[in-house]
Input
Amino acid sequence: MVAHARETDAIVINCLEQGESDVIVTLFCQDVGRLSAIAKGAKKSKKRFVNKLELFSFLHVTYQQKANRSLAFLAEADLHTSFLHIRKNLELYSIASVIREFLLIGIRENEPDLYIFRLSLWALHSLDQKQPPMTILSLFLIRFYDHVGYRPDLQTCAHCNSLVSTQNRYSFDTTSGRIVCSACRPHLQKGLSLSHGTIKMLRSAQDQPLERLHRLKMSGSILYEAILLLQSYGNQLFQRDIVSWKIVQKFLKR
Output
């Protein structure tokens, strides 16, 4: 069966060397979701793939894939942007690596997700433009969890269903993905304390249109609480550690 050439925009989210000259690259594609492809001769390429298959590169790719094959053949790659500032800065690279790990967990082959694709590009462009990196990571994750079906409930107490009030204090239950008021705290085995400022900020982030998400600013204890919540909640949801968090934590200041 002849495989017809296809084209799409894509983000490089993994890259492994194969043999002496080939590279197997994992792409997050606008049109087909996750795609694994082999780039023949990529390590020796002086034109087609040179400096293009690095992590986080935003590409326009041409590939071929037979119906009965999971591995596609990458024919061409044109570079939209390499996100050079991310590559040169350890903090930015570490935060982009957290985003990359969540993408590897959350996207599937042949399941295009235009929203997550646009959200990922927004985050990478924002990091590359040196916008506050921890804020970008927080905003990415709160929207990512929401879109994959695990929106944190920051409106009502998980036990008494009372609405959030400035007259009460709250914690976040990572198991249920909901907040718990101080009166119901004895029912909570383990939780993360949240200020009203953090709750308000995260709720705004959940509902803000993507094109206006950059207007939200986090700092100090609000940013610290948000990052801890999103990290713990992600570990609980996916039952695995995100390796890149270990480096990111070095840059987190309370």
Summary: Strands lie at 5-18, 22-29, 33-39, 58-64, 71-81, 153-157, 170-173, 178-181, 192-194. The helical segments are 84-88, 90-106, 114-128, 133-147, 196-207, 220-238, 245-248. The longest helix spans residues 220-238.
